[in-house]
Amino acid sequence: MRIGELSRRTGVPTRMLRYYEEQGLLEVARAANGYRVYAATDVMRVRQIRGLLDAGLTTEIIRRILPFLDKPHHIHLHPQCLTPELARLLQAEADRITARIDCLARNRDALLAYLEAVRRFA
């Protein structure tokens, strides 16, 4: 399939798909005319990339772990993936996400308290 079709199937703009390719997140074959050609499995791959980005992971981390994620919720561990450097990187990212979750929870609680006060006085 071509880039427009992949964009329609995933909801990811073509510009973002090109960015994924530039970042090494998505491997793309080229037709004789130079057009990008995507496999049906790329639909799942793009959705996976989108989910990891939405979770707050950086493209650097995604590029490093993506080859070891063969299905959603399944990690295929490979010795190349199991390095102290990657473990530090993942721990730092997990810590950053935890801090963000804590901040979001505080904001949610403040909003709900405010909403409750507004409803009492309305």
List keywords for this structure.
Multidrug-efflux Transporter Regulator, Chain: A, Domain 2, flat, 2 strands, 122 residues, single chain, two-stranded antiparallel ribbon, mainly alpha
**What is the total tally of β strands?**
2
State mean pLDDT (0 to 100 scale).
89
Rg from alpha-carbon coordinates: 19 Å
Give the CA-CA distance, first to last residue: 56 Å
Number of helices: 5
Q: Main sheet: which strands, in order across?
A: 1-2
State the order of secondary-structure elements, H for helix, E for strand: HHEEHHH
Please give a structural write-up.
By secondary structure, the chain is mostly helical. The chain has a domain at 1-59: Orthogonal Bundle (Multidrug-efflux Transporter Regulator, Chain: A, Domain 2). It has five helices and two strands, in the order H-H-E-E-H-H-H. Strand 1 and strand 2 form a beta hairpin. It is flat. The termini are far apart. The mean pLDDT is 89.
What's the short story on this structure?
It is built from five helices and two strands. By secondary structure, the chain is mainly α.
Q: How is this fold's topology laid out?
A:
Layout: H1 3-10, H2 14-22, E1 29-30, E2 36-37, H3 41-54, H4 59-65, H5 84-121
